[in-house]
Amino acid sequence: MTGPWTVLKFGGTSVSTAAGWDVIADRSRAVLRDGRAWIVTSALSQVSNRLERAIDEALASDPGTSIDWIEDRHRAFVRELGIGDAVADLDPALEDLRKLLEGVRLTAEAPARLRAKILAFGERLSTRLGVAALERRGVAARWVDARALLTSRRRPGEGDSSRYLDADVESIRDREGCERLADGADVVLTQGFVASTARGEVCLLGRGGSDTSAALFARRLDARSLEIWTDVHGMFTADPRDIPTARLVRRIGYREARELAAMGAKVLHPRCLEPVERSGIPLDVRNTFAPAAGGTRIWTDEDEPTVTAVSCRTGVTLVNLRTLSMWGAPGFLARAFRPFEELGVSVDLVATSQSAISVTLDPVEGGVGGERFQDLVARLRELGEVDVVQPL
Question: Does the structure show a pLDDT above 60 at 294?
């Protein structure tokens, strides 16, 4: 262990151009002056969407164009970066991807386990090419497979979709394990979004999961700081697309940042804040395309203003449970919320009165028409009158 780690996460827009990799190399060199850099990257911009479309095309026996688009995009990227030698990593991966999609086409099936394996190719390709891009810029980086360090854990009521496509990884300290795979390197490059199950199968951390991966690595490494590099300066007092006079929030505490992220701010995934908060690791949001500009620092909750920002969410599902029998009835709330726990349905906001409970929900596997949600409504109706309002 030769120095403290700084975790640098770069999203899809940041890793999709040669200019972006110039910034990644420059920032890595700056970190190397007094520490080491652990870099987490997403797939190239739009590649994850194209992989999903390629699966749908294979299911429909549609020859489609998505797989050709993915291959052409990465070959053009190799040419742009001038890393022709990296084709040795690119060709076998693309061949593996085509074989998996052909299997989907032949069987007309794409279970969650297989979807996860296919969707993980975006990060597999970007990180392998990224090592060559950094080497071209004079930065020696070691590729580490995130699946060897991040292992998911089972949740109550978890179905295959959640297990493989929206997995949960425990936030722990494990610097020794990370150092073992780093093998003395001062710069490590690894995938965001990707983990493995306890049985060694590929699983994903859900959309926005690269932020969570970076935070999990920061806690494992007991990092000096975590930097999320994206295409905006940071968190604003409102969405600048709606409110042109919105101001950049220079500093904000973990709690308020988590609330903003959960309530519609798109800069960070709310799940990424818990690991760094537990270890007291500062999180900086920076703009890859304006690296000299200031950003947002998320750290302690001191000296917060009364109102920090305004955000909104769309597509929200509201469930109302009404019954006069809850008034003065000990344990009624416990009975009302037991079905949510047993069916694995996550509650977002809660409001109660003397005769009603109202909750908004995080996304439910299968949607409001799915079996899980319908089971939830049926069990709640054993307690009182239920109505569902969606979308809000």
Answer: yes
Angle at 141 between CA 296 and CA 229, to 5 degrees: 15
CB 126 within 8 A of CB 134: no
Give the Cβ contact number of residue 289 at 10 Å: 16
Element (H, E) at 26: helix 18-31
User: Under 8 Å CB-to-CB from 224, ≥6 apart: which residues?
Assistant: 4, 5, 6, 35, 281
Distance between CA atoms of 36 and 187, rounded to whole angstroms? 6
pLDDT of residue 262: 78
Report DSSP letters for 310-334, one per residue: -----S-EEEEEE-GGGTT-TTHHH
Rounded-to-integer distance, Cα 229 and Cα 227, Å: 6
What does DSSP assign to residue 214? H
Percentage helix, strand, coil for the chain under 3-state DSSP, each rounded to 5:
40, 20, 40
N-term to C-term CA, the chain: 51
CA dist., res. 266 & res. 231, Å (int): 11
The pLDDT of residue 64 is 83
- pTM score of the predicted model: 0.82
Nearest in space to 307 (alpha carbons), one of 247, 245, 234, 392: 247
The arithmetic mean of pLDDT across residues 49-61, rounded, is: 95
Neighbours of 47 (CB within 10 A): 24
Distance CA 272, CA 270 (A): 5
Strand partners, 384: none
Dist CA 257 CA 269 (whole Å): 10
Residue 306's pLDDT is what? Answer: 73
